[in-house]
Amino acid sequence: MAPPEATWLLYFDDEAAPALRLAQAAGLNAQAIERHRFPDGELKLRLPVDAAGRLPRHAVLLRSLHQPNEKLVELLLAARTARSLGVQQLTLVAPYLAYMRQDIAFYPGEAVSQQVVGGFLAGLFDAVITVDPHLHRIDRLEQAIPVPQTVVLSGAEPLADLIAERRPNALLVGPDGESAQWIAQAAARHGFDHAVCTKVRHGDRDVAIELPALNAQGRAVVLLDDMASTGCTLALAARLLLQAGAASVDVAVTHALFAGDALQVLRDAGVGEVWSTDCIPHPSNAVPMAEPLAKALQSVLRG
Length: 303
Ligand code: R5P
Description:
Helices cover 31% and strands 27% of the residues. The protein has 303 residues and is α/β, with parallel strands linked by helices. The protein folds into 2 domains: 8-153 and 288-301, Rossmann fold, CATH 3.40.50; 156-272, 3-Layer(aba) Sandwich (Rossmann fold). α7 packs parallel to α8 (262-268). The two termini are 12 Å apart. Residues 1-5 have low confidence and may be disordered. Ribose-5-phosphate (R5P) binds next to β12 and α7. Residues 175-176, 178, 207, 225-233 line the site of ribose-5-phosphate. Its EC number is 2.7.6.1. GO terms for molecular function: ribose phosphate diphosphokinase activity. Residues 20-118 form the Ribose-phosphate pyrophosphokinase N-terminal domain. Residues 167-255 form the Phosphoribosyltransferase domain. It holds the Pfam family Pribosyltran.
């Protein structure tokens, strides 16, 4: 069953390509939000409207939240304006959801960003669809973003399909305990040999990793994780695996954040291929998510 015909998919110009792919897959009417930046840095948005100057009752906003700070202001302006123009059911599709990693105050006075940003999004949207949010100490997205409907997709299985094609006998390795969930999903799908490292983080670019008991000798290893930011986690794991005799180390991640020189950091560590989903637009994108996102959207729109 198709979603209600009048549903519009609102997007910003820098995400036109993924928006049009998603709109086509979900059978929605894609409409761009105009954005003007004033000389002092403030933003002005202009939402698309029909001939009567209104928006439909159902609308979807696509915004992947890498480089999130300004985008959170965009969401505030766009969502509040959409409501004032008649939208009653507003769904956020954020293939990458920011601020999910800071989920506890490690020191007195620290902001628990997951709760703060989650509460902010819950105040704007009725439903949230995302992919592999970094939920470490909680099980369900609605614990972080208390909205009536949430859908969490995973990049692990489609990435596993790609790995099975490119490295059929891969030894799948997770760089830290948190990656165990994605390693388990991917291994269950294709029967890969698999193992998970242990990691202690000392700083943004300072991690210590211990390999699990495994025989990497001569193996084509693929490191799989939800995201790479500085690349330091995957780079250190790759170095250790190559020292342990791995024939090759490639990398597969759902979210290609790859801040600064992260790709070079991986290359310098001996990493071969880098594959990612298109949740964050990046040259490493090899797995499209439009179809699963469209299915999730159709189920949300049907209520
Ligand atoms: C955290 O546990 C995540 O799963 C990643 O391992 C982490 O964000 C990677 O960060 P970086 O690339 O900066 O080492």
